[in-house]
Amino acid sequence: MSTNQASILIADEMHPSLFAMLDEAGFTYDYQPTIDRQHLLTAIAPFEGLLVRSKTRVDTEVFDAAPKLRYIGRAGAGLDLIDMDEATARGVRVVHAGEGNRDAVAEHVVGMLLALFINLLRADRQVRQGIWDREGNRGIELLGKTVGLFGYGNNGRATARRLSGFGCRVLTYDKYRSNYGDQYAEQVTAEQIMAEADILSLHVPLNDDSRRWINDDFVAGMAKPFFLVNASRGEVVVLDAVVAGLKSGKILGACLDVLENEKLKTLTPAQQSTFDYLRQSDQVILTPHIAGWTHESYVRINEVLVRQLLTMNK
């Protein structure tokens, strides 16, 4: 294919599969995965496209340095590092690859819940230590549980599909959508989820509405003791509220793939105390922001992204 597409600056590390796809589609690009912010600001001026992952914050300063920028591609789902208002004001289109990792996220959510419900991690540790405790590791089943999903985009829908296969009743609320209920989840109000859910799973973007949303007041507003799953963004959940809920029994367990501060070496003393409680609790499953991070999703994200770039350049 001849090269007839706008040039793209790739400012984050990408899976090698991306380059063959871009070549086949006829894009020209400059791959600078280790570029720092200062060099990005001086390098971006001639480019019409920018591809990023989670390292690069695209704000007014970046837009000012990029007079030719027409589109931004996010190799992933979240757009919280991109100033969307500024992009809209400047006529810069933004696409993301939420479809690319939705199945990975859904499988991870189910995996965390199963591990928590059947005491998988604790039982494994104990057996390795020569402890054979069947009764102390008696589990509970997903079958028959009511799951509330906040957010019903790519990840929410994929999660609902899998949980419905376990015999769960799935409820969903998404303030940004309408008529989104389907055979896997019943569209309800946020209040109904808070009244009926045994499990609450978060699939919302990080914005001013969702930041620190799950706090002490929210936990107190849940009608029943519940299990919490967060595979969205860490800043949606106040971890001190999770600890308080675990101590009071209002939160029965938590599956956390994301944290308020994921740079563990920079935790404040207060954050460290909270994290220490969570990491020592058998009621908590922790993973390092890997819910969408599979070998398959890494390639699939590129496929989705290039497909969207082609659509924009037609």
Automatic annotation (TrEMBL):
Residues 110-291 form the D-isomer specific 2-hydroxyacid dehydrogenase NAD-binding domain. Belongs to the D-isomer specific 2-hydroxyacid dehydrogenase family. Keywords: NAD, Oxidoreductase. Residues 8-311 form the D-isomer specific 2-hydroxyacid dehydrogenase catalytic domain. The keyword NAD applies. Pfam families: 2-Hacid_dh, 2-Hacid_dh_C. The keyword Oxidoreductase applies. InterPro entries: D-2-hydroxyacid_DH, D-isomer_2_OHA_DH_cat_dom, D-isomer_DH_NAD-bd, NAD(P)-bd_dom_sf. It comes from Fibrivirga algicola. This is Phosphoglycerate dehydrogenase.
